[in-house]
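ok so dumb question maybe but i'm new to this and my supervisor (M.) told me to 'just get the structure for Activating signal cointegrator 1 complex subunit 1' and walked off. so i did the thing. is this what she meant?? sequence i used:
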Amino acid sequence: MPPSGAPSAGTDLARLGSSLNFCAMDVLRPTLIRIGGRVYRKNLVQEPAHPQEEEEDEGFYAGPGDCADEPCDAFVVEETEKGFQCRVEVPSPLYKYVIGKKGETKKRLEAETRTSISIPKPGVEGEIVITGQQRGGVISARTRIDVLLDSFRKKQPFTHFLSFALTQPEVQERFLQFKEEVLEKCSKDHGVSSSLFQNPAKLHLTLGTLVLLNEQEIRKACELLQRCKEDFVAQLTGGRPLAVEVAGVEYMNDDPAMTDVLYAKVRMKDGSDRLQAIADQLVERFVASGLMLKEWDRVKLHATVMNTLFRRDPGAEERSSTAPGKASLKEREAFNARNILKLFEHFYFGEVQLDAVRLSQRFSTDASGYYATSGQLNFC
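this is what came out, is it supposed to look like this??
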């Protein structure tokens, strides 16, 4: 007889059966991952845990000859005198994830796919070259590298973002008036201080964030912006600036007494949804290109005016809700925005003529005080 409270043999078997059924479902219905317009499956692999080894490939597997549900012409594989070869452009900051701790990831990839993987020296931009005697092995290695790099790219802090600048003098002046009046009337409310407010020279709308790790990726983003102009932006704008109004404030959480972000609302002056359409289509195109991660179904058009992240990091303006390095909720001191929302519900920040979408560089400043621009799409 088992001791009181201990599971019976029948219970153990039932749990085992349930576990096996769960594993079977995982095998039959593996997670699908989209990378650059292609679809990969994430197979279930039981491997020893290495909690300290950040460069592991997280269980992604595609064995020799296994195209991971991919057509074998998904990328170019060249036939050589000694077998087959495939080249893949990889930004140098990502080399370490293919190499792994003490070279273990690279060695495992080579052993399991029967290939040789050549990686440029750290800091040198170039191509990773995969060679092998079997075409299937080369394809398998390339597939695994693609999935591996996609996983670790998502963990990189973003470097750039698409933005509309809201830096007209009228808007800056009205924003400073808003700041002065909030501090005058609400400074006794919990958490309210001058450190919460945005830099007026960097007021903007954020459309989406990007991780661009070398000049080639920046150039690719700039080229995509110009194609977007030709494909749909020029038609939506008619080649003219968009007149928008910045008015009213809103908060981004469930309890106004525990607010982390307060933003100004933005709307087209003519009441149309052209600005929303441009924002949504731009993000859709950048997500499809693999340069941007999809976070929301629609872009939230807003201009941050107060943010608790600014207390500790004035450069945190553009940190997205899922970006690595974000301060945890425990590190953020929320503020009570109830009175601010009541007193400034309809505060008018001014009218803006939006005439360009900018590819802005994070943690940078140009001569005007705004973010440095790596490229832009001009409406006119």
